[in-house]
Amino acid sequence: MKTIRVAAAIIKHNNKILATQRGYGDFKGGWEFPGGKLEAGETPQQALVREIREELDIDIAVGELIETVEYDYPQFHLTMHCFICTLRSGDLVLKEHDDAKWLSKDTLYNVDWLPADRGVIGKLILLM
Question: 3-state class of 111 per DSSP?
Fold first, then answer.
């Protein structure tokens, strides 16, 4: 089975977490932490800074790795490195997503998270 390595930004701002709704592909409409695939020679942290700038037009500071999720989707295995991040600058512009929401501890379960992302929510609640 093919393995896809990605980095996910758990962007925390004003005690809320950013969730984005996929605007393309097999998982269109599902909610996720923004991020993307690692390119050759790129660290997860470098990938996050690049992907977030490309997809959301904002700059982030990448902090602590909080979890690496290993998840088997029907067509591939996903390795997702999840980092707590903070917003440094910029105004959020959705270039590849249909929607975005800032969710509080009490509203984290109010969106339909993609399965791999869903596994991180319990740990996030403890950190908020």
Answer: coil
Q: Any idea where the domains of the chain sit in the sequence?
A: 3-127
> Which H or E run includes 34?
none
Q: Which residues of the chain fall below pLDDT 50?
A: none
Residue ranges with strand state E in 23-58: 31-32, 35-37
Residue with tokens 């996720």: 32
Enter the pTM of the model: 0.93
Q: Confirm if 111 and 31 have CB atoms less than 8 A apart.
A: yes
Tell me what pLDDT residue 122 has: 86
**Of the CATH numbers 3.30.420.40, 3.90.79.10, 3.30.70.141, 3.40.640.10, which one belongs to the domain with range 3-127?**
3.90.79.10
CB 117 within 8 A of CB 32: yes
Separation between Cα atoms, residue 78 and residue 86, nearest integer Å: 24
